[in-house]
Amino acid sequence: MEIDDKLVEKLAKLSKLEIAAEEKTKLKANFGKIIDLVDKLQEINTDGVEPLIYLTENKNILRKDVVENMVDKVEALKNAPDKDSDYFKVPKVLKK
């Protein structure tokens, strides 16, 4: 695959990036290295190799979800700085 200025400009446009002229030379060299690496990887025989889904064999062990120390509405709202019957009142965060 040939990496030229046209390809770099197309990739820049697709990724919505502005690339200076001196950066194009560096990018072409880097893209060339990436293509060489991919070509090198394609030479490796991967027959019989299972795909790697997880990096380790560890399993995530979770505790049981048990409800404890429930707080009723009145107690929860008791120390609220601002409340409206059954709800906490907070300052507006989103603007229209």
Gist of the model:
The chain is mainly α. The chain contains three helices and two strands.
Plain-language structure description:
The protein has 96 residues and is mostly helical. It has a domain of 38 residues: Histone, subunit A, CATH 1.10.20. Strands 1-2 form a two-stranded antiparallel ribbon. A hairpin with a 2-residue loop joins strand 1 and strand 2. The longest helix is centred in the first third of the chain and has 22 residues. The model has no long low-confidence stretch (mean pLDDT 88).
Unreliable runs: none
Strand order of the largest sheet: 1-2
**Distance separating the two termini:** 49 Å
The CATH first-level class of one domain comes to Mainly Alpha
CATH names the topology of one domain as Histone, subunit A
Multimer state: single chain
CATH architecture assignment name of one domain: Orthogonal Bundle
- Order of helix and strand elements from N to C terminus: HHHEE
Shape: elongated
Q: How many β-strand runs?
A: 2
Features:
single chain; 96 residues; mainly alpha; Histone, subunit A; two-stranded antiparallel sheet; 3 helices; 2 strands; 40% helix; elongated
How would the blueprint of this fold be written?
Elements: H1 5-14, H2 21-42, H3 73-78, E1 83-84, E2 87-88
Antiparallel strand pairs: 1-2
